[in-house]
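Input record (one chain):
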Amino acid sequence: MAITAAAQKIWKGKEWFKVVAPTELGDHVIGETPTLDSDAMVGKTIEASLMDLGGDPTKYFYKLKFRITSVQAGKAMTRFEGLSCTRDYVLRMSQRRTRQVRVITDTKTKDGWSIRVKSINVMNRVVQSQISKKIRKMTDEMVRSAASQLNMYEFLNEIISGALQTEVRETGSKTYPVRIFEVTAIEVYSAAK
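The corresponding structure, as predicted from the sequence alone:
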């Protein structure tokens, strides 16, 4: 199929820029994008799988969102903007006769990022609301504590490595057996200056 003259005209003056992850996440190239004006790229968001960042292939379900902050020498530099789990992974966690306890925590990290952390606890059986409240309160306190003691990228690495999930699951299992604990999303409200 031949390329039309209009299509050639659109692509002719565009330059390709590599989109690079933040240095705290390894400076990996997460994509390329064409543009006529490099200043127009600032503020746009891009989503990448954790596997694209050279991460653990078993964490395929994490998607990270980045915002382009500056363009220099053919590279678009980014800042972390959010994390989410794929919908199919979250749906696969819940089964019949299990109880989900969802927790939403607004907190600040040690370096001043204001974030919202959404998480889910899955219990082995349907449980009473009193137990759900205890699990919800314990999860909220542990996530707040971890975030306040770490800077944003350390907190993110704690989640990606699974250390926070293991700690919350083990502590929660003292109240009632927690089968799965997972952070399903992180939303960034304001980044550190």
